[in-house]
Amino acid sequence: MTPSSASAPSLVIPNLAEPSSDLLQLAQDPAPYPAFLRLSKTGSMKERNRYVNVDPYQNNRVRLKVPEGLNDYINASPVVLHSTKSDKVLKYIATQGPRFDTYSHFWRMVWHETTSPAVVVMLTQTHEASREKCYPYYPEKLETPIMPLNARDEYEDGFIHELKLTNLENHEDVRAEVRELDMTNEDGSESRKVWHLLFAGWPDFLVPQGDDREALLRLITMSREKNLDNATNPRIVHCSAGVGRSGTFIALDWLLQELDDGSLDEVQDDEDPIFHVVSAMREQRMMMVQSEAQFIFIYELLKERWRDRWISQHPEEAENLGVGRRLSEGQEGPRLKRQKSQKQHDGDEEEKAESEAELFDAEIDIDKENA
């Protein structure tokens, strides 16, 4: 990739300057998912969903490790993304925000599907706009550090654990509450460390703004560093439905690795790496990257990072062009007042209302089915 012109003060990445029309169409009117991939849900499965219109594919879902013949359903999907230039692999589990009646299933999944230390990235608040988006499935305060898990032994298989909050720190530069948890079985013979990263800068259907954009990038870096092997130990990522913010986070994590590997240095005119990764994710979980604003956010952020990387690699040419590098992570400089993420892009209000209405209707539908 090269700057668009020698005289241009701002660099434009070919194919990353703006979303393709195909991708925006994908955001606004997702292609129908093949019927054979959709899960034929029984009543007991439907009861575990937060939204009636969001569920994992039949052939790509996490199955709870429970006694044979019992309900192994959890609304969670393994997501595997491969580097285009190296042999690197990134593994994730995208899932919905746990409900009161499913949070023990969530921790059962953590215990069986990850190794210590596990990393959980939470991209939603427990309540937004006076509605529950996620049950508080973790100890919130050091004053009350213990949370029993599955005390009634739901599956009668002895999976009774305890969750203990051992440390809680607020990282202002990451806009996150970072919890260090110990998950221990009933007799204390086995224990796992879990890092729980709760990001506070991302309202549903919108995108981080101002300082929250840089904070999100630091969160991505932190989630990688806390996990010892991102190729074998999947990071668990969730928002409320487990598709919009979760898909955006995962796409950015993979694209930033591609950028660091040099895979985006020479993208052909007919290639769109963002379209590629979103399509790959949607083959593994429906609706990944949910709104047009989230698509545009990925393009904008990746463009900024590509620009910074090019300038760092070509300092003399950048100086001749009069192109300055944005402050990198950790550098001091004039601190901008944080623009609250509640502030929306022009045109986002209608899209946000439509998305909220769709999920609100889904909540109503599932409540009716469970009544």
How would you describe this structure to a colleague?
- The longest helix is centred in the C-terminal third of the chain and has 23 residues, at 348-370.
- Strand 4 (127-128) and strand 5 form a beta hairpin.
- Helix 5 crosses helix 6.
- This protein has an eight-stranded mixed beta sheet.
- The model is unreliable at 1-15 and 327-347 (pLDDT under 50).
- It has helices at 21-28, 43-46, 103-113, 211-226, 244-261, 273-282, 292-313, 315-321, 348-370; strands at residues 76-82, 89-95, 118-122, 127-128, 131-132, 146-149, 161-171, 176-185, 191-199, 235-238.
- The chain is α/β, with parallel strands linked by helices and 371 residues long.
- It starts with 20 loop residues before the first helix and ends with a helix.
Main attributes?
single chain, alpha/beta, PTP_cat
Shape: globular
Q: How helical, in percent, are the residues? A: 25-40%
Note the beta-strand portion: 15-25%
The helix/strand order is HHEEHEEEEEEEHEHHHHH
List strands and helices in order, with pairings.
Elements: H1 21-28, H2 43-46, E1 76-82, E2 89-95, H3 103-113, E3 118-122, E4 127-128, E5 131-132, E6 146-149, E7 161-171, E8 176-185, E9 191-199, H4 211-226, E10 235-238, H5 244-261, H6 273-282, H7 292-313, H8 315-321, H9 348-370
Parallel strand pairs: 2-10, 3-9, 3-10
Antiparallel strand pairs: 1-2, 4-5, 6-7, 7-8, 8-9
Summarize the structure.
The chain has 371 residues and is an alpha/beta fold. It is built from 9 helices and 10 strands. Helix content is 32%, strand content 16%.
